[in-house]
């Protein structure tokens, strides 16, 4: 129980420091503070025990990096398709997009297979919603900053 309390306090401190760091719109995004806040948020919400967290985070971070790489490629395909392209080029881009979406599915399957050896199925299922909650929280903080709150 003490660990959860400390994690909650750490999470609140991280969010506060993240908000303060981003208050000045000219200041660059602080990835280290973002990652610290994300780790605290997810660890607390999943109620990860110390031994679980030690094994979970390397798996999650690798998954996240690989997923980000694929998402960047999908974004590049979307940019390529914005111009005046031929039918053959469009067909090629569609095939590339489908291949990347297949890679994403395989990556998700591999991740779930690995992560459920470390955390429960229930925790693994909750992870997607928790990640979205964190993104929403960051989005809200940025909106408040933009309004001067």
Task: Quickly describe the structure.
It contains five helices and no strands. The protein is mainly α and 149 residues long. It has two domains: 1-48 and 128-149; 54-118.
Please give a structural write-up.
The chain has five helices and no strands. The chain is mainly alpha-helical and 149 residues long. The protein folds into two domains: 1-48 and 128-149; 54-118. This is LTXXQ motif family protein. Keywords: Signal.
Shape from CA axes?
flat
Classify the helix fraction into a percent range. over 70%
Our count of helices gives 5
**How many strand segments?**
0
Sheet of most strands: none
Uncertain segments: 4-17
Count of the separate structural domains: 2
| Average pLDDT | 83
User: What is the CA–CA distance across the termini?
Assistant: 34 Å
Layout of secondary structure:
Layout (H helix, E strand, L loop, with lengths): L1 H20 L9 H16 L3 H31 L6 H29 L5 H26 L3
Helix pairs in contact: 1-2, 2-5, 3-4
Structural descriptors:
149 residues, 2 domains, 5 helices, flat, signal
């Amino acid at each position: 129980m003490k660990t959860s309390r400390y994690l909650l306090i750490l999470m609140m401190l991280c969010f506060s420091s993240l908000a303060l760091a981003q208050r000045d719109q000219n200041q660059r995004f602080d990835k280290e503070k973002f990652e610290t806040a994300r780790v605290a948020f997810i660890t607390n919400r999943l109620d990860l025990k110390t031994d679980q967290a030690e094994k979970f985070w390397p798996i999650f971070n690798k998954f996240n990096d690989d997923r980000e790489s694929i998402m960047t490629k999908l974004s590049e395909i979307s940019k390529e398709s914005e111009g005046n392209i031929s039918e053959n080029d469009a067909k090629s881009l569609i095939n590339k997009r489908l291949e990347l979406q297949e890679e994403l599915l395989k990556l998700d399957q591999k991740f779930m297979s690995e992560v459920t050896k470390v955390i429960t199925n229930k925790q693994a299922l909750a992870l997607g919603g928790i990640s979205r909650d964190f993104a929403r929280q960051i989005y809200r903080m940025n909106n408040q900053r933009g309004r001067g709150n």
